[in-house]
Design goal:
By secondary structure, the protein is mostly helical. The chain has four helices and no strands.
């Protein structure tokens, strides 16, 4: 799944724990674990996660 690969890459780059990513991006600390276990997020949730990663990268660019 494309979204999960992008999230895993983002978490490696930022050293962000998966629970923190889920809590900050979609208000669900189990989000990443659920994706790893086969959850298929809807379009709205996927867009929120992608927006969070893009905004984080933009805000923390050096």
């Amino acid at each position: 799944m494309y979204l999960l690969r992008e999230i895993e890459k983002f978490m490696r780059e930022t050293e962000m724990p998966w629970t923190k990513f889920g809590r900050l991006s979609v208000r669900d600390p189990r989000f990443v674990e659920d994706l790893r276990n086969g959850r298929q997020p809807g379009k709205k949730i996927s867009l929120r996660a992608e927006h969070f990663m893009n905004k984080w990268r933009n805000d923390h660019a050096s």
